[in-house]
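Technical note accompanying the year-one report. For the benefit of new consortium partners, we illustrate the data format agreed upon in the data management plan: each record pairs a sequence with a structure-token string. No post-processing was applied to the example shown here.
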Amino acid sequence: MFTPAYLLVILVFIATLIIQFWLQATYARYSRIANSRDLTGAEVAKAILDAYGLQNVRVEPTPGALTDHYDPTTKTVRLSEPNYASPSAAALAVAAHEVGHAIQDAKGYAPLRIRHAILPVANLGSTLGPWIFIIGLFMNATGLMSIGIWLFAAAALFQLITLPVEFDASSRALVNLRKMNFLSPGEMGGARAVLTAAAMTYVAALANSLAQILYYVSIVQGRREE
């Protein structure tokens, strides 16, 4: 059904691809630039954790590229293998960002706790929501379609709560990299560019989900008006 809402979905999807390309290009650029202190991502992550008294948080390598994340259930910062061992400005930015999540966890940062609490519902919504909507579409059951929309909306809510969590972690990362002199003033620009590009991927993901919800709602309204 080619509608204005469908056109919006296409435009947002294209924008998402552009942002992903921007992130990959920015990350690749600053992955080739070593920091002046020749510190690896793992070393910086451990140093920041020590400075905050978080020796209980482990730092481990994980396979893949840009698979970096913080696991609050095991108190572990997992850095992708390139960032774990690399002394690049990009690696330090990513490592400091993930440690930012560990600091949030230690300080009881409310959005992080809320995000972790609704994660199971969000996963269920993102998996089942679209399928329930499609089943309702083929059965011409607008009630079932609405249930699918509400389930998918739970995933969008998770993405919305993710925004302040990610922006705050990036802010903490930049402050710590500068305050602890891990990067020179000239190198800070590269770290900021990497974190900005990464943050925009979360904005794009939320915009994509909202556009899809709007499209689903327009279909339900169209069925009800028939």
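Partners are asked to follow this layout when depositing records. Strands lie at 58-62, 69-71, 76-80.
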